[in-house]
């Protein structure tokens, strides 16, 4: 059952305090990141799939740290191609190169990138996080959580912006026709990138994570519970923790997003409670739609939502039924 009724969700606009230096913090973060050359490298790899060509991607993320990905394009494509940059769910990774044929079969280039330090839950990954942190709960949500400058997701959000820049560096990619997509953690990263890069053609955050942290910690039973467990152990740190998280809240990035956006939400989702998704959706400043799945949990629309995106994303990238 939903945490709020659907009518209430559609009107849910909580007051979420935003740091006064939010924009300055992210401007500095991206400036520091861009001091390192992007150094995007693409090495073609052999796969059993004759309809696509795949490249092993390495580029410099936050701190100049190497981030891995797969770029997959239609075989024989001459470009420039509309491009989908995909961010994966919590704990996952870029997986294996043969896993990413959907968007190339629709005529798009497709870049899927690792989230640093993850890649051992579900899909495998190949990117380390060389930065340590203070005491934290198992998982990633509390690593460095006492300081916005040291928080784990500062590096991840910067890496995600650089992923779009890396995609745009490939000669087959049309830099003006790039969409950011993802579900769960990937949806939260797509939202962040949409707020940090004003020139994306579209974003598609499905059941996004990393939104409306105060309510998410109150209601969420899976990933967000890491924060609750941290606060249970580190009594008295609540104000400091939520101040750090306020720099990373998808609601604030949504308020800055201007690209057309296609959201989805599941009303029985206990991982990303629907009120946290609607808080971001209702704050989103660009043209937007949301698909509601009343009887689903965190799996959301699954292949049905993929079909929605296969119809919607190409329209945003080209104005037609295919890329």
From TrEMBL:
Q: Which residues bind substrate?
A: 90
User: Coiled-coil region(s) at which residues?
Assistant: none
Q: Which domain of life is it from?
A: Bacteria
| Segments passing through the bilayer | none
List the active-site residues.
184 (nucleophile), 269 (charge relay system), 298 (charge relay system)
Listed Gene3D superfamilies: alpha/beta hydrolase
Query: Where do the segments described as Disordered lie?
Result: 120-139
Q: Which Pfam families match?
A: AXE1
Q: Name one GO biological process term.
A: polysaccharide metabolic process
Residues annotated as domain Acetyl xylan esterase: 2-313
For molecular function, the Gene Ontology terms on record are:
carboxylic ester hydrolase activity
PANTHER family, per this entry? CEPHALOSPORIN-C DEACETYLASE
Name of the molecule in the record: Acetylxylan esterase
Species source reads Actinocatenispora rupis
């Amino acid at each position: 059952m939903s945490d709020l009724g659907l009518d209430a969700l559609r009107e849910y606009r909580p007051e979420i305090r935003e740091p006064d230096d939010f924009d300055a913090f992210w401007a500095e973060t991206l400036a520091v990141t861009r001091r390192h050359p992007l150094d995007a490298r693409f090495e073609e790899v052999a796969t059993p799939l004759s309809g696509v060509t795949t490249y092993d991607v390495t580029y410099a993320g936050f701190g100049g740290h190497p981030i891995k990905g797969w770029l997959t394009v239609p075989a024989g494509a001459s470009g420039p191609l509309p491009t989908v940059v995909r961010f994966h769910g919590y704990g996952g990774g870029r997986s294996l190169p043969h896993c990413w044929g959907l968007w190339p079969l629709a005529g798009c280039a497709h870049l899927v990138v690792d989230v640093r330090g993850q890649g051992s839950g579900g899909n495998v990954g190949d990117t380390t996080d060389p930065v340590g942190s203070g005491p934290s709960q198992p998982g990633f949500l509390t690593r460095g959580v006492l300081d916005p400058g040291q928080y784990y997701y500062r590096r991840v959000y910067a890496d995600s912006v650089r992923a779009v820049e890396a995609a745009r560096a490939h000669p087959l990619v049309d830099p003006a026709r790039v969409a950011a997509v993802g579900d769960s953690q990937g949806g939260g990263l797509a939202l962040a990138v949409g707020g940090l890069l004003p020139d994306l053609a579209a974003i598609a955050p499905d059941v996004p994570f990393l939104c409306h942290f105060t309510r998410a910690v109150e209601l969420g039973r899976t990933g967000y519970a890491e924060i609750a467990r941290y606060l249970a152990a580190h009594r008295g740190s609540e104000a400091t923790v939520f101040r750090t998280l306020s720099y990373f809240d998808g609601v604030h990035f949504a308020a800055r997003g201007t690209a057309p956006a296609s959201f989805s939400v599941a009303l029985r989702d206990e991982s990303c409670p629907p009120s946290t998704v609607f808080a971001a959706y209702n704050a989103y400043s660009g043209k937007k739609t949301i698909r509601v799945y009343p009887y689903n949990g965190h799996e959301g629309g699954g292949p049905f939502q993929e079909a929605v995106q296969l119809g919607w994303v190409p329209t945003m990238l080209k104005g037609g039924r295919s890329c």
